[in-house]
């Protein structure tokens, strides 16, 4: 399926696009809110400023994808592969990133308020200036992550403790 076909079918009301290959496609500023993109390959895709609100991206491949300023509020990213993805200034409010792989991901200035990052791999992730208020980082892997100037309030840390630096 090419991009034009995807957009046409979405505009006609179709929302199920599971397991399609969208590797390296340009979906800049696209609206795919509430779409089912289960197990989709979006490796190196350009999703700059895309509206992915409440999208199902369970087990999706988003390695090295450009998600700068994308809106992923309420999105399901459980088990998604986001290694090296650029999520700078993305909005992931209440997103489900349980067991997601975010190794080396750029999350600078991202809004992760209320996000579920339980058991997520954030090794070497760039979380500086990220909003982590009410985020659940229980059992998350933060080895080598940059959390400088990140905002914490009622944030559940990997060891189960609550961090309230910015309440």
Explain the overall architecture.
The chain has 167 residues and is low in regular secondary structure. It has a single domain (1-167), classed as 3 Solenoid (Pectate Lyase C-like). The chain has one helix and two strands; from the N terminus they run αββ. Strands 1-2 form a two-stranded antiparallel ribbon. The mean pLDDT is 97.
Brief rundown of the structure:
The protein has one helix at about 5-10, and strands at about 155, 160-165.
Tag the structure with descriptive keywords.
single chain, 167 residues, little secondary structure, Pectate Lyase C-like, two-stranded antiparallel ribbon, 1 helix, 2 strands, elongated
Alpha-beta classification: little secondary structure
Distance between the termini: 47 Å
Q: Which architecture per CATH?
A: 3 Solenoid
Mean pLDDT, nearest integer?
A: 97
State the share of residues found in helices, binned by percent. Answer: under 10%
Largest β-sheet summary: 2 strands, antiparallel
| Overall number of strands | 2
CATH fold annotation: Pectate Lyase C-like
- Using only C-alpha atoms, the radius of gyration works out to 15 Å
Strand and helix order: HEE
Annotation field: number of helices: 1
Domain module count: 1
CATH homologous superfamily heading: E3 ubiquitin-protein ligase SopA
CATH class: Mainly Beta
Low-confidence stretches: none
Q: Approximately what portion of the residues adopt beta-strand conformation?
A: under 5%
Shape: elongated
Q: How are the strands of the largest sheet arranged?
A: 1-2
């Amino acid at each position: 399926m090419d991009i034009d076909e995807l957009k046409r079918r979405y505009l006609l009301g179709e929302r199920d696009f599971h397991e399609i290959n969208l590797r390296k496609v340009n979906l800049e500023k696209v609206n795919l809110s509430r779409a089912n993109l289960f197990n989709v390959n979006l490796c190196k895709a350009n999703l700059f400023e895309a509206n992915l609100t409440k999208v199902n991206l369970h087990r999706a491949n988003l390695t090295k994808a450009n998600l700068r300023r994308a809106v992923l509020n309420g999105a399901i990213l459980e088990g998604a592969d986001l290694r090296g993805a650029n999520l700078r200034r993305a909005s992931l409010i209440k997103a489900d990133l349980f067991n997601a792989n975010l190794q080396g991901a750029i999350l600078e200035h991202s809004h992760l308020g209320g996000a579920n990052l339980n058991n997520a791999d954030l090794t070497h992730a760039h979380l500086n200036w990220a909003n982590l208020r009410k985020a659940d980082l229980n059992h998350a892997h933060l080895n080598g992550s940059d959390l400088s100037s990140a905002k914490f309030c009622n944030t559940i840390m990997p060891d189960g403790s609550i961090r309230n630096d910015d309440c």
